[in-house]
Amino acid sequence: MTSMVIIGAGPGGYEAASVAAAGGVDVTVVEETGIGGAAVLTDCVPSKTLIATAEVTSTLRRAAELGLRHTETFEVDLDAVNSRVRQLAQAQSDDISRGLERKGVRLISGRARLATGAPGHLHRVVINDDETIDANIVLLATGTTPRELPAARCDGERILTWKQVYSMREVPEHLIVVGSGVTGAEFASAYDSLGCPVTLVSSRDQVLPGEDPDAAQVLQQVFESRGMEILSHSRAVSAIRDGDAVVVGLEDG
């Protein structure tokens, strides 16, 4: 039987494992942080869940415009919002794990590295420095990690990557989002809808530089009409903690 080791269990890894196992391959998947990878645990699934909550919040804020009156105000419990986001992401991760195990895929939690010494045409993988597996095929599907600026080291409290943002327990008094691509635009829009003042720092002339320019222009106009501050042609070079605040430095001083 052909054997296969997959390092990384994001969409590329777990889909490959599912197809290979269905084809009779003996599959082992090694994943360090959780089945589903960033797409399920810290990226696509959580961000879309957050956006759905933000859309409801935005609609409630416009109730009076729609002819609806309410006698009590509402507030955003960000701790509860993010707790729900994490629970839904974990539920999907668990569902993927069960599906792989039903197909006979072996799941190992930990880190893996390639090593020499495998016999014949096999490839050797060392897992957690204490287990060795020789396989016919090795698939590297390790995904990506957030890029940090040397002068903006993330501390998980005030300076956050997109993987850490779901740990916030309160809506910030002011949120600065560095980067106006899809991920940055999503978080800027969501937190703006949750009632948080947002400044979006963009090194380009408008948001979503890699997308259709006409659509991006419309989106930027919507952001600005809602009161979001967008700093175009501005490149962030630093982010420094100052007590309970963060000072973001731009290239132009």
* Proportion of beta-strand residues: 15-25%
The number of helical runs is 6
Write down the Rg: 22 Å
- Please tally the β strands and state the result: 12
Helix percentage: 25-40%
Distance between the termini: 62 Å
* Sheet/helix structural class: alpha/beta
Poorly predicted residue ranges: none
In which order are the strands of the major sheet placed? 3-2-1-7
Helix/strand order, N-terminal first: EHEHHHEEEEEEHEHEEE
Overall shape: elongated
What summary fits the major beta sheet? 4 strands, parallel
Task: Report mean pLDDT, rounded to a whole number.
Answer: 94
Folded structure, characterized:
This protein has 253 residues and is an alpha/beta fold. 34% of the residues lie in helices and 23% in strands. Strands 3-2-1-7 form a four-stranded parallel beta sheet, covered by helices on one side. The radius of gyration is 22 Å and the shape is elongated. The model has no long low-confidence stretch (mean pLDDT 94).
Q: Could you give a quick summary of the protein structure above?
A:
This protein has about 250 residues and is an alpha/beta fold. The chain has 6 helices and 12 strands.
Helices and strands, with pairings:
Elements lengths: L2 E5 L3 H12 L3 E6 L5 H5 L2 H18 L16 H25 L3 E4 L2 E4 L7 E5 L3 E5 L1 E4 L34 E4 L3 H12 L4 E4 L11 H13 L3 E3 L4 E7 L2 E6 L3
Parallel strand pairs: 1-2, 1-7, 2-3, 8-9, 9-10
Antiparallel strand pairs: 4-5, 5-6, 11-12
